[in-house]
Known about the structure:
The protein is built from 14 helices and 16 strands. The protein has 358 residues and is an alpha/beta fold.
Amino acid sequence: MITFEGVTKRYPDGTVAVDDLSLQAPTGAITVFVGPSGCGKTTSLRMINRMIDATSGRILLDDQDVRAIDPPTLRRGIGYVIQQAGLFPHRKIVDNVATVPYLLGWDKKKARARAMELLELVGLDSKLAGRYPFQLSGGQQQRVGVARALAADPPVLLMDEPFSAVDPIVRASLQEELLHLQSELHKTIVFVTHDIDEAIKLGDAVAVLRVGGRLAQMADPATLLSEPADDFVREFLGKDRGIRRLSFVPATGIRLGSVPADLELDEDTRPLGWRSDGGLLPYGTFNPERDSLRAALDAALLSPNGTAIAVDGDGRAIGVATRDVLDEALARHGTRPEKRVPDPDREVPASDPRRAES
Ligand SMILES: Nc1ncnc2c1ncn2[C@@H]1O[C@H](COP(=O)(O)OP(=O)(O)OP(=O)(O)O)[C@@H](O)[C@H]1O
């Protein structure tokens, strides 16, 4: 557990980057700091490993004040990943990954063996080990950055916009891999991003900061989307938060009808398409055991008749959800009124989506 207790950082020029920040990043979970540029995310992150020292307040690592631990010792237990990986350009990939083990005095063979193991863990081909950073793509370099941060098996990992320099497709796969790694490693991760979608995808807990380094809200993603604390958080989450929050509603409760005769199936009862005079029409599927209500809606949108096909883990049709049934599910989950503290002094502007919701 990482605990911020009333932490403030005032830079020598008087800028208050972080103002009385109190929050907890739970052990074994991903906590994301998100917010607009200049809101103090990086400063907050760097105060954990003492690359920056707080002006006042305390940061505790489990129960120990980080100020009581000398920085080299502290950083041995904290992996650090930054944007564009920050690899040493003149060192081979394997030696970049082995940096911390070398510093810890491991013998070269053991350190390199560990590096090779980590390259595999982050999905890199072992033949890249002998290359130099410039010979790798941006996405590969980021993977090396993650491998390097994990080299000494630190319990804590700090990640500062680690995926923001790569294109959206590579970024999505790096995010998936981080989630996969985390499901095995259970590190305590603090992740900084300015991208709310990334925060919602990766965070077990999301701390939304506002400029001036003040905490606007800290919550799990589903709560954040359904119960934004104020207008700043609501704006920051964006206009499509209604549909995004359906990603956190399981599709299990959807009432399924039987598979209709106009759905063409193969011999294993996997769907092939909707029959029509002009041939088979496209369709969309969802797995009620595994997918969200959003996935079911997506499946419905892919079918010209608006009916989503439910499949089992082997892709076999087990039923359908018609538009009416999906409407019912939406009515149950999609229009839940927000819990907010009304502010009688505040007018709700005509453009505010809450007007439409009420
Ligand atoms: N060394 C410094 N001296 C003075 N002010 C600083 C210093 N470093 C950062 N700041 C200021 O502190 C505030 C917070 O900066 P910080 O880098 O923590 O924000 P951030 O949320 O990470 O921003 P971004 O998303 O743009 O990286 C900003 O106003 C920044 O200009």
